[in-house]
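Researcher: Let's do a round of design. I'm pasting the structure tokens now; please hold your answer until I've finished.
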């Protein structure tokens, strides 16, 4: 076998080691599953084998789950078939997986899994088909979970049937619906696995096998009862009632994967395990036929991984190791950048205008890390090591030898110019200089240094510690080496890079502004504020536009608006936005930062909308009969962003559909179930999208005017992935 080795000891116990060649992590491919079936048959028929222990030969862990590239390939095949034939192909493909795992657990020999590290998705499902699991208690990187819902699919290897039969519906649904991953201690508490030190893992598993020669799964034994009760049990029905309402609250009905998981568990627990596996496979096949699943798999898993591995690195550039960086500006953003860099093992020189300000930046990092220690997410030694890597100072000469220096000072040319000049004066010719600006064009900022080819933008999103996306901006003279170095920095910080061309607001902020703008337009148009917010969340946005303005800070939005007007003139202003933000500034309502914005933030309760927002409605808040439908609000907030993204493609600001989609989801939370802004357009279809946009333009004006590119695509029937992506992306 290629992926497994099998060694039989003197007690007749087979040690089966999963170790796919040429891969850092094991995954379940069709080839791997074929070998699982092969060694399962040998366990069943070879009288010399009394039982087996399954483990991994990878230091990185046991198995990361299914091969989603292969899953996408199967889906692409299905799309070329009739609806009936496609459903049959998908069902036949995935029922074979369940039959393989079912054969393992009914092979007649005891099988234990010795889990030495990460076991997620199909990897965990493989261990659930074993009769016993033991996880390494001393491996801090060990995680067990079924995260499929997070990429738009459901556990299709029996997870929706075995986990609730093992843990009870309540615990299983809690893990599956949210894609939670648990460590060894929590797994033991739940009853998912026993624990043992890594050095004793295999022996512990072998001892169990020897002690349980007649092992069967609990659900294959007489008298088995579902922990906590099934759907018709008085206690069990309460679980499903609560789960259904919580699911609606959390997903707003936009995510079919979670809905199907709940259905699989509810229906599957009413029948035997074999029938339950068939139910799961039918839902799995149906889900794969839905655009939400296809788009989420492509964007959130395949494209995201490709970008993180350097898919956008310029040709001819080699990967470099980032050892030392400089951050100039120790405020909230600069300290955040320094924090994630220090945690990633990178030496950081943190500079500000005076030592007290630099020390405050270090204090922010200390407080952040202390919070992680208090929550058990970091130990004290790691915290101390991270803090030791940060040097707070006013001395620019300490930047010498830095691989990259990031300017993160106030969003003003007058402030940034002398800082950029001092950075260039302090560093050598190999150091890349970057600006963490969110709106100012990189080409113009590069003029403040003598070598614009080694100057680029690195736009981190706030808060840096939590946000996964970084926009890397290529200025008019930025060289490939600078872009490559910036990609290496983002990778070292375990974030996702997208490379975009220079433009005011770049890519993300241009699209986000359209979302915020619609909030202001609806507010001025007399739409009930709560309807604006809830309609936007029903559309799939994580927060409404009024809440988002509060989080960004209303005074910052006002300053950006004024800076744009200063550079571009009055045509850069949006009258409703300027009127409303101007009034909010006069009232000193700056957002969450001072607990007064579009929302009120009481000390003793949850935030709520400011009761005086009706003053901004031109002509007053409309009566109920004049309010828009939720569907109308949905289209307004999603279409305005997607149209701006298409305009960015037309202008060459972003030219890779993967970056546009991944950036929209990770950068500002564009409805993840759509797969991103361009996947949203492709799913609607360019012709239908343009037709609906025309209706919105007639009603609401310029934000819904589509660019010529979209009109051309509507005529030709093209998609963004078909026109701008390669064949693998299109699949």
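Researcher: That's everything. Go ahead.
Model: Designed sequence:
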């Amino acid at each position: 076998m290629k992926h497994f080795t099998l060694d039989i000891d003197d007690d007749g116990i087979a040690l089966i080691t999963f170790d796919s060649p040429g891969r850092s992590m094991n995954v379940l491919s069709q080839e791997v599953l074929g070998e699982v079936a092969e060694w399962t048959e040998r366990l069943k028929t070879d009288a010399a084998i009394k039982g087996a222990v399954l483990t991994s030969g990878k230091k990185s862990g046991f198995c990361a789950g299914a091969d989603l590239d292969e899953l996408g390939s199967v889906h692409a095949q299905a799309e070329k078939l009739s609806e009936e034939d496609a459903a049959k192909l998908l069902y036949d493909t995935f029922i074979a997986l369940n039959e393989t795992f079912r054969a393992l657990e009914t092979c007649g020999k005891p099988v234990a899994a010795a889990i030495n590290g990460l076991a997620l998705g199909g990897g965990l499902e493989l261990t659930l088909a074993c009769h016993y699991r033991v996880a390494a208690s001393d491996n801090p990187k060990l995680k067990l979970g079924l995260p499929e819902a997070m990429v738009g699919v459901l556990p299709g290897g029996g997870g929706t049937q075995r986990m609730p039969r093992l843990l009870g519906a309540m615990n299983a649904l809690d893990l599956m619906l949210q894609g939670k991953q648990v460590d060894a201690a929590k797994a033991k508490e739940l009853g998912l696995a026993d624990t043992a030190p890594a050095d004793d893992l295999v022996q512990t598993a072998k001892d169990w096998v020897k002690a349980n020669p007649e092992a069967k799964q609990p659900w294959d034994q007489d008298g088995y009862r579902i922990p906590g009760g099934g759907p018709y049990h008085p206690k069990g029905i309460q679980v499903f009632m609560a789960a259904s309402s919580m699911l609606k609250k959390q997903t707003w009905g936009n995510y079919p994967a979670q809905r199907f998981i709940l259905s699989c568990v509810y229906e599957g627990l009413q029948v035997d395990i074999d029938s339950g596996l068939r139910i799961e496979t039918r839902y799995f096949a149906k889900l794969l036929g839905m655009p939400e699943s296809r788009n989420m798999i492509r964007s959130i898993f395949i494209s995201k991984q490709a970008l993180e591995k350097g898919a956008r690195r310029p040709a001819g550039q080699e990967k470099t190791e980032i050892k030392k960086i400089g951050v100039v500006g120790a405020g909230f953003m600069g300290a955040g950048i320094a924090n994630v860099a220090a945690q990633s093992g990178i030496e950081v020189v943190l500079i500000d205008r005076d030592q007290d300000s630099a020390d405050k930046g270090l204090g922010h990092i200390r407080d952040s890390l202390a919070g992680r220690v208090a929550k058990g997410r970091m130990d004290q030694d790691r915290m101390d090591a991270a803090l030791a890597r940060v040097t707070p100072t006013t001395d620019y000469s300490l930047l010498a030898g830095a691989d990259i220096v990031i300017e993160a000072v106030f969003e003003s040319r007058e402030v940034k110019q002398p800082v950029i000049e001092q950075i260039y004066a302090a560093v050598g010719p190999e150091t890349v200089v970057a600006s963490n600006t969110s709106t100012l064009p990189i080409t113009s900022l590069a003029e403040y240094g003598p070598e614009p080819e080694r100057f680029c933008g690195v736009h981190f999103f706030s808060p840096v510690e939590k946000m996964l996306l970084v926009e890397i901006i290529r200025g008019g003279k930025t060289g490939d080496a600078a872009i490559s170095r910036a990609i290496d920095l983002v990778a070292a910080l375990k974030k996702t890079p997208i490379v975009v061309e220079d433009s005011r607001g770049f890519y993300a902020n241009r699209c986000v502004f359209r979302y915020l703008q619609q909030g202001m337009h609806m507010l001025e148009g007399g739409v009930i504020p709560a309807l604006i917010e809830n309609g936007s969340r029903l559309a799939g946005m994580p927060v409404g536009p009024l809440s988002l303005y509060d989080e960004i800070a209303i005074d910052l939005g006002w300053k950006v608006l004024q800076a744009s007007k200063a550079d571009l003139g009055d045509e850069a202003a949006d009258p409703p936005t300027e009127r409303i933000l101007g009034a909010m500034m006069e009232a000193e309502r700056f957002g969450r930062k001072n607990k007064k914005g579009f929302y009120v933030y009481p000390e003793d309760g949850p935030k709520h909308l400011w009761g005086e927002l009706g003053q901004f409605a031109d002509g007053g808040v409309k009566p109920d009969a004049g309010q828009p439908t939720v569907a109308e609000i949905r289209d307004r907030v999603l279409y305005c962003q997607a149209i701006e993204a298409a305009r960015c493609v037309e202008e060459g600001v972003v030219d890779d559909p993967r970056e546009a989609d991944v950036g929209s989801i990770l950068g500002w939370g564009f409805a993840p179930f759509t797969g991103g802004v361009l996947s949203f357009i492709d799913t609607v279809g360019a012709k239908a999208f343009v037709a609906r946009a025309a209706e919105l333009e007639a009603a609401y004006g310029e934000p819904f005017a589509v660019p010529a590119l979209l009109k051309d695509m509507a005529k030709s029937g093209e998609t963004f992935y078909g026109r701008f992506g390669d064949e693998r992306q299109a699949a």
